[in-house]
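Weekly structure sync - notes
Attendees: PM, LS, DV (DV joined late)
Agenda: review two folding runs queued last week.

Item 1: First target. Sequence and structure tokens pasted below for the record.
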Amino acid sequence: MKIGIAGLEHETVSFWPGVTDLEEFERNAVHGPDVITKRRGTNTSIGGFIDVLEPAGVDLFPVCDAPGGATATVADRVYDFYVGEMKREFSKVASELDGILLFLHGATRTQSLQDTETHIVNEVRSVVGYKMPVMVALDLHGNLDPNILNEATAIFGYQSSPHVDAGETGRRAARAMLATLKNEIKPTTVMAKPGVVVPSVFSATTVSPARDLITRLHEWEKLPGVVDVSVFFGFSWSDVHQLGMSTVAVTNNDPKLAREIVDDLAKLAWEKRRFLTGRGGSLHSVKRGVALAIEKAKTAKKPIVILDHADRTNDTTWVLQELLAQRAQNVALPLLCDPKSARICNEVGVGKTVEIKVGARTGWRDGGPVKVKGKVLWAGEGKYTGTGPMRKNQEIKLGPTAIIKTNGIWLQLTTYEHSLIDEDPITQFGYETSDFDIIVSKSKTHFRAVYEKVAEEIIIVDAPGQCPADLSEFQYKNVPPGVYPITRRD
């Protein structure tokens, strides 16, 4: 048995000026046999494919895996490069392949394509035909068009945000592939679109209301004949016609049951739409959130976490400015992406004092650079192997990195973008999270896998960054009528 494997992932902020080009993907991309060696044992969907298929004695045919971040619209040449590679390589062995497993994000938009993932599967189909099973693992934040079901035999989404189950999602897809090839199941996949757009900060499945949907999902999975169930919460800041939530069920040749499942989950999503879109009032202004963190830190036994969820570039300075204005002390602000400042600190060296302007390198909704003066505590190449639940065994490259102490703030400056979703950016540099009274994360939900235990309390601020919870900040042109809260309000 021979199964092809490939991946291309990006979460596109279509309002972000400019494009994300090929160089950004190639920095972390792997090709050919490296897909297996680099992804084996990792909490990634492709790692999950490998976990199931290798012990089963399957001959793997890896093509590529190109993970992107959450940045501007993807350049067409990125699509052409990787999809061209998939088509070229799969066509060479099309007669030998029994199936193909793909990992695609679900919220990729290119310069020319809104529904990118459907096009990718269609292009793969163009070289292997429609008799071969092609199954797709997807991120929980995918914006899906039902047309993808005309191309994919079945689709499988993360069931957790934080995405601690990325590997398990790959294993779910691989197990279904093997069962299909052994004629144990005949997958039938159905989708519903409840018409709700969820800002990512409200998609955390460890807390309600998103948790309620996942709980219902797991109840449906217990029924005989159910192969898999997914709830996709969508990615709010991509202006595409398929924007918003999707509910998906895969059954063993039972379309009626699949329809019942997806309609029930879609109905529940619609009932909870106000809380899924932040109408419950759970966010603070930056000023109020910082003041609250400072006050609570006085008596807290563990760090208070300030979540600056709207920052997609990991360089906005709204929270830093307020921390300085309110004279906050013993604060850790890791992973502020600023290549120029990181380079300057490395040139000056550890133990020396620097006076630099930090942050706001993109010039888009970033708060502007902030002048700081402080002592360089650490400088060097930021590179380590991840130990957290999402990045375990993955090679993390921060590039030239520096840590400075400025006015009571431990400030980490990096060359490449990463978000604080585990303790590694602090502990791998010789510190402990418990050393600090306040820690700032620019994650959305992923930090919860670790910091719900590390933190005494989490305070969420809605800064005016690139992806605020208030979607009225942007003008959507492609979203159809009836999508709440963008084109339908009640």
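Item 2: Second target, run right after the first with the same settings.
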Amino acid sequence: MATSSISSSRRPDRIEAEVARTLAWLKRRGTKANREGMARYAIRSEKMFGVSVGTLRQLGKRLGRNHELAAALWDTGWYEARMLASFVDEPAHVTPAQMDRWCKDFDNWAICDTVCFHLFDRTPHAWVKVQKWSRGRAEFVKRAAFALLASLALHDKNAADQRFIRCLPLIEREATDGRNFVKKSLSWALRTIGGRRTTLNARATAVARRLAGSPDKTARWVGRDVLRQLASPAVARRLASRTRRATS
């Protein structure tokens, strides 16, 4: 795909043509080896070309930000097109209804985490969706809640501690969900919250200790997995360094 065609102005009547060019570009670069490699990491989708994430991110930069293009790419149903959609969409234009629609379409952990990490956590609706999706039944809807919470813990530097403290009961409530991709997202969220600063580390560690002592095997796994990181010397040094910088 030529750079000139990517960077040209996008009138509504050009979106369809640009999507067609993008899909053709992806098809030429997809490989069976990449698809097999993704499958080994449980990344599967009904429509997949087999293009690496690095290649997709480079293409996303060339395409630039465009909300209408992102919507059209998502609607194709192709895994790589949906990954691209998360890189080119404009967070300020993403609506709560769009977030719910896309969330219901998640069919593997990679698309779930990428959309949450690169797009949804930058929208003004992120915190509400953590609460809502945490009550969802579908595996990747519930994973999205905690992948989004982990992404907020990593990226929302201005969020008050209380916002994360209010989410800790959600993690504890769902900690008996034995589905693989749910329990791993719970651990990710709790570890990331505990890694923000000393006060949150203490709160997250207390939750992890309760879970580690639970009679439920999944809750115990989550608690122990989190404690291994939060109690590590590396985390303690990093938090102490942040505390010194904040008070100096």
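Discussion on item 2: The mean pLDDT is 94.
Action: LS to circulate a short write-up before next sync.
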